[in-house]
Amino acid sequence: AMLRLRLLTWDVKDTLLRLRQPVGESYAAEARAHGVRVQPEALGQSFREAYGAQSRRFPNYGRGRGLSSQQWWVDVVKQTFRLSGVHEDGVLTLMAENLYRDFCSARNWEVLPGAGETLSRCRQRGFRMGVVSNFDNRLENVLSQCNLRHHFEFVLTSEDVGFAKPDRRIFEEALRLGGVPPEQAAHVGDDYARDYRAARAVGMHGFLLRAAGQGKEPGVPPEHILPTLSHLLALIEK
């Protein structure tokens, strides 16, 4: 039976956009521009540590804790370099501000294959579209720079809403903005727990983007699995 869908919501990172290179490579290039040599692998490891610690201490980009998301990220970048042995305050501040700005642009993000075309075709079919992403408030700008913003009626970030996926409240807000009941909505994303399972928990349909060779998740029927974004319309219109 054809699904009676009216609203499609989309995850962004690794669903529509991906980083052009690993975080450690971008950080190492920024360091090199200031005459500082650090291995990309070391920076990648330090970034994961710094990001994890900051996320535990100040969840959701410090929202409600007196931190702006910019300050939150600047602290993560500085701590990443400190963990990799760079301690000079002036250069830390400069690099952190530059990297915060660069991750706001198409310099560091690229559109995944098939994403632009799939979004266009979904809109041509008359679906209403929105974004539901655990991202900070730079997302509008990132989507605009990557020429995807115009596809969406709304862009919901966890920073704006105050709740991060898999919290049901970010999906409930998307349904409210889309003006449809959950059974007429589907969410598309690459994360089993935060995207697929969380959307299903509020009664939405779910599609899980799964590159070839990625493990099978328990309880995801094959008709909910997208080997690529280009498979989406065929599944919806079955």
Care to describe what's here?
The chain has 238 residues and is an alpha/beta fold. It has two domains: 7-16 and 112-234, 3-Layer(aba) Sandwich (Rossmann fold); 23-107, Orthogonal Bundle (DNA polymerase, domain 1). The protein contains ten helices and eight strands. Strands 5-4-1-6-7-8 form a six-stranded parallel β-sheet. A two-stranded antiparallel ribbon has the order 2-3. Strand 4, helix 6 (139-145) and strand 5 form a beta-alpha-beta unit. Helix 1 (23-33) packs across helix 2 (40-57). The radius of gyration is 19 Å and the shape is elongated. The mean pLDDT is 94. Belongs to the HAD-like hydrolase superfamily. This is Haloacid dehalogenase-like hydrolase domain-containing protein 3. One of its GO terms (cellular component) is nucleus. Keywords: Hydrolase. Pfam families: Hydrolase.
Helix and strand element order:
EEHHHHEHEHEHHEHEEH
Under CATH at level 1, the class of the largest domain stands as Alpha Beta
Portion in helices: 40-55%
Counted by DSSP, the helix tally is 10
Please tell me how large the radius of gyration is: 19 Å
Give the tally of structural domains. Answer: 2
How much beta, percentage-wise?
Answer: 5-15%
Q: Terminal Cα separation, in Å?
A: 7 Å
How would a textbook summarize the main sheet? 6 strands, parallel
Strand order of the largest sheet: 5-4-1-6-7-8
Could you say which structural class the secondary elements and strand pairing correspond to?
Answer: alpha/beta
Number of strands: 8
Name the poorly predicted regions: none
CATH superfamily of the largest domain: HAD superfamily/HAD-like
What oligomeric arrangement do these chains adopt? single chain
What is the 3D form?
A: elongated
What is the fold named in CATH at topology level of the largest domain? Rossmann fold
Mean pLDDT: 94
Corresponding CATH architecture of the largest domain: 3-Layer(aba) Sandwich
